[in-house]
């Protein structure tokens, strides 16, 4: 937990995009070495890149505006997007005799919270690469205005993850947020007002990770450590770290999930006096939503928020409520704040951060179904679920879950989908804005789900 979040501070400042071509070129050169040294990725392949090359050519000819909507299963996705745009796209364009001019790049939207846990240097670098931040839990006027302007006027397309955050699942797409579709429609309107006739497209991009060799032994070892941490077994009982039989591993994974679920249920019932239904005879898929709801209620009651929307929406609102207690308007530079006021502000910030912890627990599990591994016990699904449980244990222990253990080398497959024309839906948008945004969001969801390879 970042110590900076335990003290009251001035409001979060908007970090304006400030693209620096020299820094961009440097990152383009470094990326392959970074992938080799800092990630477990050994190869990135992409399908249908010629679709993207053709769109980039039309973009440079001022015929289209492009919003790249990519899947977000992993924290490595931005590196994959960089490799796609900086390396694979120019290669395929050259092979297909599709002339592209100058730097090949894309602006991107990122969560304003990333520099809070990753460090201010990351915020600086994102700005120099043309990134624009957005606060997810509120109407971020500055962030939306910046993204809207980049989409309409920039020399490069704009990229964003419509899921809003990583979900840790290769084969499950989280419910998409409507902001991507809305940005597309705003772009169409802005172009019309400026008497410009470019067509606006949203381009779906799938990203999937596959282990080069199924890491059964590494999964087993990680399970063993989690079993010890949670009390399923003791160090003395540890005699199964090399067992790699899938049926045995599934039993261990399920037992670990039940143990953690039971510990968390007892935690909320005993210390937060939250009643939970007697689900002892029900499976994990039925018990988990009740626990997640209770965890969110603990935080919502503190911030005086009413439960509204799905789990993702509730998490976003809680995050913003916490930030409002930490990054305060009355603590702006130049305001006179007494020592006692500052100390009281720090106490509120500390309590808000502790309450946001409950939301972070839920945020890690919004895509967990309870039957993901059972329906297809592949190495990828075993690994994803085990790592999600590792995330939970890391958060409980107060550790940073963003630096996960790497349990095996992976290849990446990216798929460029057929572009969705936003301009063609303008009539529907004028008839009912909310319905048009919802329809386009659902279509994008369906396309991204259909792009998942389930081999």
Low-confidence stretches: none
Give the radius of gyration.
23 Å
Give the helix/strand class.
Answer: alpha/beta
> What oligomerization state is this entry in?
single chain
Instruction: Write down the overall geometry.
Output: globular
Q: What is the terminal-to-terminal distance?
A: 38 Å
Average per-residue pLDDT, rounded, comes to: 92
What descriptors fit this protein?
455 residues, alpha/beta, 8-stranded mixed sheet, 8 strands, 53% helix
Detailed description of the structure:
The longest helix has 26 residues. By secondary structure, the chain is α/β, with parallel strands linked by helices. It is globular and about 65 Å long. Helix content is 53%, strand content 11%. Strands 1, 2, 3, 4, 5, 6, 7 and 8 form an 8-stranded mixed beta sheet that branches.
Give a brief description.
This protein has 455 residues and is of the alpha/beta class.
List strands and helices in order, with pairings.
Elements: H1 21-38, E1 41-47, H2 49-60, E2 64-70, H3 77-95, E3 107-111, H4 114-118, H5 120-128, E4 131-134, H6 141-153, E5 158-160, H7 179-193, E6 199-211, H8 216-230, H9 246-271, H10 284-303, H11 311-326, H12 339-363, H13 372-375, H14 379-396, E7 410-416, E8 420-421, H15 426-431, H16 433-450
């Amino acid at each position: 937990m970042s110590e900076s979040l335990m003290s009251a501070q001035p409001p979060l400042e908007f970090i304006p995009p400030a693209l620096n071509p020299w820094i961009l070129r440097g990152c383009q050169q470094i990326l392959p070495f970074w992938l080799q040294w800092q990630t477990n990725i050994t190869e990135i392949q992409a399908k249908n890149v010629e679709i993207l090359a053709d769109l980039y050519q039309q973009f440079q000819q001022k015929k289209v505006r492009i919003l790249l909507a990519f899947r977000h299963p992993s924290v490595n996705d931005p590196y994959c997007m960089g490799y796609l745009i900086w390396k694979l796209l120019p290669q395929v364009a050259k092979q297909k005799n599709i002339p592209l001019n100058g730097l090949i790049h894309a602006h991107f939207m990122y969560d304003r919270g990333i520099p809070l846990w990753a460090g201010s240097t990351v915020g600086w670098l994102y700005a120099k690469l043309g990134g624009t931040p957005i606060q997810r839990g509120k109407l971020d006027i500055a962030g939306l205005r910046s993204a809207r302007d980049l989409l309409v006027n920039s020399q490069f397309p704009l990229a964003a993850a419509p899921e809003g955050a990583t979900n840790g699942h290769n084969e499950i797409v989280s419910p998409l947020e409507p902001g991507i579709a809305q940005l597309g429609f705003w772009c169409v309107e802005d172009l019309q007002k400026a008497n410009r006739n470019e067509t606006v497209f949203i381009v779906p991009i799938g990203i999937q990770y596959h282990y080069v060799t199924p890491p059964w032994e590494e999964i087993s070892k990680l399970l063993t450590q989690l079993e010890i941490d949670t009390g399923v077994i003791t160090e003395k009982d540890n005699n199964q770290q090399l067992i790699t039989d899938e049926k045995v591993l599934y039993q261990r994974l399920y037992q670990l999930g039940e143990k953690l679920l039971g510990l968390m249920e007892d935690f909320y019932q005993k210390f937060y006096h939250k009643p939970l239904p007697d689900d002892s005879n029900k499976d994990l898929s039925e018990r988990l939503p009740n626990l997640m709801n209770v965890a969110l209620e603990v935080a919502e009651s503190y911030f005086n928020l009413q439960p509204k929307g799905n789990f993702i929406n509730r998490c976003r609102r809680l995050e913003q409520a916490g930030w409002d207690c930490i990054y305060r308007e009355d603590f702006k530079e130049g305001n006179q704040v007494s020592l006692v006021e500052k100390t009281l502000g720090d106490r509120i910030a500390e309590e808000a951060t502790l309450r946001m912890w409950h939301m972070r627990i839920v945020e890690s599990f919004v895509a967990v179904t309870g039957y993901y591994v059972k329906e297809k016990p592949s190495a990828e699904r075993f690994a994803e679920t085990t790592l999600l449980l590792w995330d939970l244990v890391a958060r409980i222990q107060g550790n940073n879950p963003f630096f996960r253990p790497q349990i095996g080398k992976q290849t990446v497959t990216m798929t460029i989908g057929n572009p969705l024309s936003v301009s063609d839906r303008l009539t529907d948008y004028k008839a009912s804005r909310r319905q048009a945004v919802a329809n386009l969001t659902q279509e994008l969801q369906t396309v991204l789900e259909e792009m998942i390879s389930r081999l």
